[in-house]
């Protein structure tokens, strides 16, 4: 314990906080007297919360108690030697204590339930649709429908109250009592038993809100689910905001009673996803919630999973899926924001989940084992089916590559960048070569027309973008020229346009645009428009091995700008970033095309302020959001 905290007590902190200090040289001001009841209430609230277990369930090899555990399990330990165990301390066996449910929290919970039951059938339908559209439920299993059924039964079971407010209050209290109980599982637990336990907790209500918001973010006002409500575009976006508010309250309730469980981890993960869709990936709140999720993962020991023999199979697989999904989410946000990652591969023992169908994961042991036997030796399904679990398995590998690139971008100047880049490049090839054939992207037209999933091209895009980021590092260190970078940018732009076309053909034209365009499209477009301007400014073009495809690049940039304007949904959190970037792209294209085409050797110069001098710097083009930081320097009325 640091010295500054060693002798600090709760009482001293309370007394200090209610006694203002008089300024030096000023007359002493009498302290404002606080009602004794308020002071006592604050202390009692926290005294109750301090009775809950807050010690991590997982303590690592450098923890304060590690030496005692190591002695206990040492091969040289003799039974005649007394056990070296801290008195009354064994984190693995500590159970949460159910404290008295706070009446104010119960009333807040009743408010949340009243919001949900304003139109529960709508929340139910939209939440189920959100789970189906995103393929991102809890443990990648279809759970929302069952949760809603069980929760509706709970609501009907308190029908003895004629007053709705009393009914909501009674149900809220029941949810708090259920949430405060330890979530006890065992190896023989069935999937239905798990869902029944989960339905009586605030995590379940949070799932309904977040999946409802996910559906709203993936649809428009004309969707059959919402068209009867006669909503405006602004009202439709408010549905996502409402879902965030409801989910956030459920997370606060879980925090109040000291919940730590995989169900809370999945709720945090889905809430983060919803925040990015509604608030945008550049917003601080998703990253803040991700920090909570990473802390929970380490606290529960999911980063060092053992054989999980004490868990039912579906829950053991669910924990693997939670870790790999959180890991991939962390790398994506870290890349987008240019931040260091929160979950490091080098400190995790990551196990890939098996590539099974949801019904196979929750099947009887005999059926499950038969399904596992049909997987290949790497754990992939041999039916050519692309599922949510398939993406989780690939996303972990892509995230590992991205983490290495982030390390290189934040690394010291004396690091051997060239050697590290070669090692990372070999990983690109390794990942591509080890993918099942149905997960690989083939640019031939016939193959594109047969695609029923956007996942193969998304994997292709992610690998291209990692290579793009790697080349940016090399160019900034003067270890490579800009030609390869420009070529990669054009490949990414073409793949983004193909991704949008495939997405529309697959019948889900909106769901991923809010991420694909700012994450992949804007940085590549930024490099290309600047390369176009750079070539225009040159009075003598240097000969290159491969001529820059100016006409094709301009066409593809125009297509991207059109997609941003007409397809990107206004309720998406990244909408404003994309629209501002579109203005820049259109402005530069107009400038390039406003004059007759001249010979390359006598290209007309452009205004000096149109190209940032540090166009390859980390500050200017680190991610999609930074693409438009120099807009204010442009003369829009020119």
Automatic annotation (TrEMBL):
Main location: nucleus
Record's GO cellular component terms: nucleus
Protein name (database record): Ribosome biogenesis protein ERB1
Compartments (UniProt record): Nucleus
Presence of keyword Isomerase: no
Stretches with biased composition (Polar residues): 1-10
Segments of this protein annotated with the region Disordered: 1-34
Keywords: Nucleus, Transcription, Transcription regulation
Transmembrane segments: none
InterPro entries assigned to the protein according to its UniProt record, in alphabetical order: Sec_Metabolite_Reg (IPR050613)
Keyword Chloroplast: no
Organism of derivation: Talaromyces islandicus
């Amino acid at each position: 314990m640091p010295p500054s905290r060693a002798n600090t007590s709760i009482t001293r902190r309370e007394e200090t906080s209610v006694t203002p200090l008089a300024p030096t040289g000023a007359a002493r001001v009498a302290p404002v007297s606080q009602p004794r009841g308020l002071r006592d209430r604050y202390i009692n609230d926290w005294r109750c919360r301090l009775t809950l277990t807050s010690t991590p369930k997982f303590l690592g090899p450098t923890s304060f108690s590690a030496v005692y555990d190591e002695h206990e399990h040492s091969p040289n330990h003799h039974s005649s030697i007394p056990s070296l165990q801290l008195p009354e301390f064994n984190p693995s066996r500590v159970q949460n204590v159910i404290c008295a449910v706070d009446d104010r929290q119960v009333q807040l919970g009743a408010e949340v339930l009243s919001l949900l039951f304003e139109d529960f059938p709508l929340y139910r339908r939209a939440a189920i649709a959100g789970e189906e559209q995103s393929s991102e439920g809890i443990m990648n299993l279809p759970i929302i429908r069952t949760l809603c059924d069980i929760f509706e039964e709970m609501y009907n079971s308190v029908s003895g109250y004629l007053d709705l407010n009393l009914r909501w209050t009674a149900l809220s209290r029941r949810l708090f009592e259920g949430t405060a109980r330890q979530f006890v599982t065992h190896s023989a637990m069935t999937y239905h038993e798990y869902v029944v336990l989960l339905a009586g907790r605030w995590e379940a209500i949070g799932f309904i809100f977040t999946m409802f918001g996910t559906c709203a973010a993936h649809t428009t006002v004309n969707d059959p689910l919402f068209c009867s409500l006669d909503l405006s575009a602004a009202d439709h976006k408010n549905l996502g905001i409402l879902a965030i508010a409801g989910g956030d309250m459920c997370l606060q309730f879980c925090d109040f009673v000291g919940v730590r469980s995989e169900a809370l981890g999945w709720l945090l993960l889905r809430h983060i996803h919803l925040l990015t869709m509604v608030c945008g990936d550049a917003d601080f709140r998703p990253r803040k919630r991700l920090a909570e999720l990473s802390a929970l993962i380490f606290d529960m020991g999911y980063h060092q999973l053992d054989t999980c023999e004490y868990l039912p199979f579906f829950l053991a697989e669910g924990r693997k899926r939670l870790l790999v999904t959180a890991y991939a989410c962390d790398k994506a946000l870290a890349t987008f924001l240019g931040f260091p990652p929160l979950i490091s591969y080098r400190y995790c023992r990551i196990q890939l989940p098996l590539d099974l169908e949801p019904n196979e994961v929750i099947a009887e042991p005999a059926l499950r084992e038969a399904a596992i036997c049909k997987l290949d030796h790497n754990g992939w399904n041999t039916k050519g089916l692309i599922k949510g679990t398939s993406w989780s398995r690939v996303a972990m590998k892509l995230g590992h590559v991205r983490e290495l690139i982030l390390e290189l971008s934040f690394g010291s100047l004396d690091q051997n960048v060239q050697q590290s880049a070669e090692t990372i490049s070999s990983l690109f090839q390794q990942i591509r070569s080890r993918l099942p054939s149905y997960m690989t992207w083939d640019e031939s037209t016939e193959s594109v027309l047969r695609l029923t999933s956007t996942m193969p091209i998304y994997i292709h895009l992610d690998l291209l973008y990692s290579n793009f980021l790697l080349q940016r590092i090399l160019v900034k260190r003067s270890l490579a020229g800009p030609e390869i970078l420009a070529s990669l940018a054009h490949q990414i732009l073409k793949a983004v346009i193909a991704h949008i076309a495939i997405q529309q053909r697959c019948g889900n034209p909106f769901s991923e645009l809010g991420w694909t365009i700012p994450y992949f499209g804007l940085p590549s477009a930024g490099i290309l428009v600047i390369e176009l301007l750079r070539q225009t400014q040159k009075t003598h073009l240097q000969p290159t091995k491969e001529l820059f495809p100016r006409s094709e690049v301009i066409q593809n940039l125009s297509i991207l700008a059109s997609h941003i304007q007409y397809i990107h949904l206004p309720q998406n959190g990244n909408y404003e970033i994309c629209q501002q970037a579109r203005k820049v792209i259109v402005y530069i294209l107009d400038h390039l095309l406003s004059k007759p085409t001249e010979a390359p050797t006598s290209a007309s110069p452009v205004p000096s302020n149109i190209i940032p001098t540090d166009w390859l710097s980390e500050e200017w083009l680190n991610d999609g959001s930074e693409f438009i930081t120099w807009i204010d320097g442009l003369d829009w009325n020119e």
